[in-house]
Amino acid sequence: MEMNILEFDKVAREVFAPIYPVIAEQIKLKTGITRGKCLDLGCGGGYLSIALARITGLNIHLLDVSQEMLDIAASNIAENGLEARMQTLLADVQEIPLKDKSVDLIISRGSIFFWEDQQKAFEEIYRVLTPGGVAYIGGGFGTVELKKQIFAEMEKRDKNWNEESRKRIGKHAIENFREKLQNAKIEVFELNRDDTGLWIVIR
Ligand SMILES: C[S@@+](CC[C@H](N)C(=O)[O-])C[C@H]1O[C@@H](n2cnc3c(N)ncnc32)[C@H](O)[C@@H]1O
Question: Coil, strand, or helix at residue 75?
Fold first, then answer.
């Protein structure tokens, strides 16, 4: 993936920071899962997971392909005193090193757009979910107000950001995800696209 790790983390800390608690609340409200095992796919610096750990009793595995990202996540976990309930996991989403039916809640923000084989990733997600488990995956900015604020700030930093971001969550993205989900033989899913982002809910 072409992404400067330290640069992304700087943006997450300086610009994206306010969205994580908002999205964590939305995940809690939508899924109702507050206990058991959670898996964050493409966790980055772990900000979404940390926000979710603060408002639930979940045990969270933070998975990423980048050891550098996981090092940042580990230091953020320690800073928040959450080591007992959170652990990092170096792996690719296309090959999740966890047992079948072992995860109650899967979360993922801003990562799916980088997955090479999304169908394989969906198959893996479906394999590790417990019966009754839920996956909440996609990209977004919490609220319309936050999204506006972030787009304004990001445009100052990167001229192409607006267009690239729109492409990721544009209409064609919905059709692409629907096809991949169906090919992965996932029967119950929701594809939600609104002014704050695009989220897939798998049950
Ligand atoms: C834009 S960042 C988002 C990070 C974090 N979820 C957030 O919202 O702040 C995307 C992350 O996905 C990870 N990633 C990309 N492809 C992946 C894959 N195939 N398996 C696991 N992680 C992946 C990257 O290393 C990166 O940390």
Answer: helix
